Amino acid sequence: MTHGGALLVRCLEAQGVDRAFCIPGESFLAVLDGLHDSPIDLIVARQEGGAAMMAEATGKLTGRPGIAFVTRGPGATNASAGVHVAFQDSTPMILFVGDVASDQRDREAFQEVDYGAMFGPLAKWVARIDRADRIPEYVSRAFHVAQSGRPGPVVLALPEDMLSGPADGTPVPAATLPSGKAADDDVAAIVDWLAGAERPFVLIGGGGWDAAAGRAIGDLAEAMDLPVGASFRCQDYIDNRHPCYAGDVGIGPNPALADRVRGADVLLALGPRLGEMTTSGYTLPVPPVPAQSLIHVHPDPSELGRVYRPDLAVAARPGAVAAQLARAARTRTGDRAARAHADYETWQTPEETPGAVKMERVIAHLNDVLPDDAVVTNGAGNYASWLHRYYRYRGWRTQLAPTSGSMGYGLPAAVAAKLHDPSRDVVCLAGDGCFQMVSQEFATAVQYGAAIVVLVCDNARYGTIRMHQHRAYPGRVSGTEMVNPNFAALARAYGGFGATVATDADLPAAFARARGSGVPAIVHLILDPAALSPRLTLPADA
Predict the structure, then answer these.
(1) What CA–CA distance (Å, rounded) separates 6 from 29?
(2) What residues form DSSP beta bridges with 298?
(3) Backbone phi and psi for residue 73, each to the nearest 5 degrees, phi listed first
(4) Do both 64 and 155 map to the same domain?
(5) Whose CB among 181, 386, 410, 538 lies 3.0–4.6 Å from 428's, allowing a Cys bridge?
């Protein structure tokens, strides 16, 4: 006989969990006690949003649920940002929330929240474990739900008295997941559509992929001369050097790529939801009946036909289907993919932007010096548009970025990535606004020796909003200016390495010193506020 917190920890161990993230709270002291003697590595973050985003990034990296523990009320509300990222990014994750004691429920007790109502729109499943003897059942179900179909987050509330009370139970073995394969007839039909098309296009993305699936889609594309594009922030699903890679179909795509998608006669959407970002505001293609013949493969049947009416709908995991298609591919020669890749190469040619530090040159330097397996993370902001356009992702899970567009994601994701594999270079790009939403997590990196390099892109403004403001209300600046600290000095205050880059010539040495410092590092890039994006410049009088 033991307490519920210890039984919960044993159940996590049985599921193969090796790391969890938390902000400690009195509502789950019994879990912390259970973790004391557990091989699970407990990482204490600085704010619940950071802990949840670290867990989400771990889910992306491993394909298994990332785990976070937070306390009730404010802890849960802070963590909701990470849950939303997991939901929109189709990432397996489980958030455990310490809850009020059972005999205090429904009295608006201290920090009490109705988690079913709060997280219902943000999670695949929300539940409370009221009996300690059912902990193994609930944990097993949570791992199945988080990973099955379209992956996503699960939230489990843990009443304080349930955790601290006596418990007896046997952990359930690790989740057994369905294969997610498509029927043979569906695979044959997809190959028939692609083989008969004159202007086919393959768009990959969503959850349920792995490195083998990325290689399989490359093999399929080479065999059948298929241009392949990546949906928003899924650029690492296929090596960007692949001769069939056509670029990313996201925000502000290559105009030639957008034309290619619009002009396709058959569009195979293998995994993505076809949401706003990937479709350029629902113009690539146009709903509800696209001009292209649409084949939509997605693990959630309810997503098929939700916005776009497909000609062929297949409810299956895209990674499994990629492997099936590669095995069933027919040989077709031509130059369709080569022309699409040539357009991508042309789009890679930098367009010069204002300032002594130019983001296009920063990204070019990263391309030159980072190894193929380096992980590059980012949150949200115009600074990321240079990264998405010019950086070449060369391996699976070398890109950690939120398709949900959540600011503040890059730093906690970088911490999680470095802890997951300390041997890999991990570089975070963050805007000045993006970084300061989570800058306290730099302390987490220092505490656990996660020697990441953060490039803080400082243009002293919320650049994306300023861009939209200039378009909609020119000359009326309101709410977008910032006064920033010395970010290099901030890094040193935390015990890390800090350097300031004021000209392009400063970057190579500063970045090399940061990489070689052996500690978490910040390289503070002083940018010209006029440089809004790779193609937009703010006028001097704006």
Answers:
(1) 10
(2) 315
(3) 60, -115
(4) yes
(5) 410
